[in-house]
Design a protein that fits this description.
Layout (H helix, E strand, L loop, with lengths): L1 H26 L5 E8 L19 H11 L7 E8 L2 H7 L12 H8 L3 E8 H5 L1 H9 L3 E3 L17 E6 L7 H21 L5 E8 L33 E5 L3 E7 L2 E6 L5 E2 L1 H4 L10 E2 L3 E11 L2 E15 L4 E13 L2 E6 L5 E3 L3 E8 L7 E2 L9 E11 L10 E3 L6 H25 L22
Length: about 450
């Protein structure tokens, strides 16, 4: 009985670990990305590797750094399982995440991960996935050998001679995808069993050439462009503007900036939107700089609202806070320079985010719910009205794309507060009513017609 209980506990623990793995994969964004899983044969381990930040899309360069670190202690005989298409949704739908462990199609893969050291990259950039075979060959100098699972037994493999075996796995959408994934998992199990029987240590990689499911983010509709009900209307896709990228002379991109609108208004003049000039490569970044602790993005314009020269400047600092034990990005101020005059807005109280994240806010303004506040009441900033919509910026730990966005929206929105207060009021009324009903008392004495009548003295 004790052994049976112990086996059940171990099985439950394994199922929880695999479920946690698949859930972590599920929580990552799935926009033109593929997952990548690396594991080794039994008896080997990986060095301590820093996991990707939440929401980070791993580029080809970072993938190479991961693999170089992993191969310092793992075997150099590599097996690359390349699925035609693969997404995190495949693990979620067919991986037995929600308790249906017996229906999982990744039995051999899960078994290999349970007994060996492994590394999971939930979001690998599509461009890196397409050239992953070339990356292996170019960076590690290992000869590439394409083979079919049936012909693997005839190969002369040696633990002393590193090699890169590439095994292609098919994929199709629709009802047959589950069976194809099951067959792919059986192929993985057969290859690993063959290598184990020959005593050849290995490092295995499982990924896809392109995603099988691509989920596009649906932005919140702009109320000014809402056209009412259009059930049968074909939506028109607006072209996506690339972000402004400032590249450091030593470390590549160090500042990313994007916004839908950058409206500025001076006194009673009509507002002017800087976004069309900003995201069509006409703006210059002269004066911008970045280092480990300070970043400064300078957007230079000409002939804005009658001013010959016009600059929009964002200044950010990276500060370590002992309370949270992490670095934070603080936007110290937003500055406007125009024809020798300066308008300075403080933004440190509202625009901040953990240093490894980007900052996003649907509305950044100095009017309603202001995140931008004039530095002084007599400052030139009091003459200006700024409104930035869908504002997003990242100035530290920048890769090729924006990292996970820390949004400015507070957890308790006005709607949530209204709902909570209404609920508390209704609960109070219900509680008071129940309390009053519990205080009702019935008569404890009644007039008995067969007995003496109840007399009440009149003099009392």
């Amino acid at each position: 009985m004790t052994e049976e209980v112990g086996c059940r506990s171990v099985s439950a623990l394994k199922m929880a670990l695999i479920s946690l793995l698949c859930i972590l994969i599920l929580l990552s964004p799935s926009r033109a990305q593929v997952p990548l899983i690396v594991w080794t044969s039994e008896g080997y381990s990986f060095p301590a590797l820093s996991e990707p930040s939440a929401g980070e899309i791993v580029s080809g360069g970072k993938l190479v750094s991961y693999l170089k670190s992993a191969l310092t202690t793992s075997p150099h005989n590599m097996v690359l399982f390349l699925q035609d298409k693969l997404s995190v949704d495949d693990f979620t739908v067919y991986g037995g995440v929600f308790g249906n462990k017996q229906d999982s199609v990744f039995v051999n893969l899960e078994s290999a991960l349970e007994t060996s050291a492994h590394l999971v990259l939930p979001a690998l950039a599509w461009s890196a996935a397409e050239s992953v075979e070339e990356l292996f060959h170019k960076e590690f100098g290992i000869p590439v050998l394409h083979t079919e699972p049936a012909g693997l037994a005839q190969l002369q493999l040696s633990s002393s001679q590193p090699s890169l075996l590439v095994i292609s796995l098919p994929y199709t959408t629709g009802t047959q995808s589950k069976e194809l994934l099951r067959k792919s998992d059986e192929t993985i199990g057969d290859v690993l069993t063959l290598l184990k029987s020959r005593g050849i240590p290995y490092t295995a990689v499982y990924t896809g050439l392109r995603p099988s499911h691509v989920t596009e983010d649906t932005p919140i509709s702009n109320t000014r462009g809402f056209s009412g009900r259009s059930l049968l209307q074909v939506p028109t896709e607006a072209p996506v503007k690339p972000p402004v990228i400032f590249n450091s002379t030593t470390s590549g991109p160090c500042i990313l900036f994007w916004a839908d609108h950058l409206s500025v208004t001076y006194e009673n003049k009509p507002s002017f939107d800087l976004a069309p000039l900003t995201f069509n490569n006409t703006v210059t970044l002269v004066g911008s700089m970045c280092n480990e602790t300070v970043s400064r993005l300078v957007l230079n314009y000409k002939n804005v609202l009658g001013f010959q020269s016009f600059q929009l400047i964002f200044t950010m600092h990276k500060i370590f806070f002992p309370v949270s034990a992490r670095n934070w990005t603080i936007m110290e101020h937003v500055e406007l320079n125009y024809d020798g005059q300066t308008a300075l807005f403080n933004s440190s109280r509202g625009i901040n985010t953990p240093a490894e994240y980007s900052f996003h806010c649907q509305r950044v303004s100095n009017t309603e719910s202001p995140l931008l506040v004039p530095s002084q009441e007599t400052d030139e900033a009091t003459k200006w009205t700024l409104l930035f919509t869908e504002f997003q910026i990242q100035s530290f730990n920048v890769t090729e794309n924006f990292a996970y966005a820390s949004d400015c929206a507070s957890f308790f929105t006005p709607g949530i507060w209204m709902g909570l207060l209404t609920t508390l009021l209704m609960v109070f009324i219900l509680t008071y009513g129940l309390h009053m009903m519990m205080q009702l008392r019935t008569m404890d004495r009644f007039d008995d017609p067969k007995g003496p009548a109840i007399s009440v003295p009149q003099n009392e």
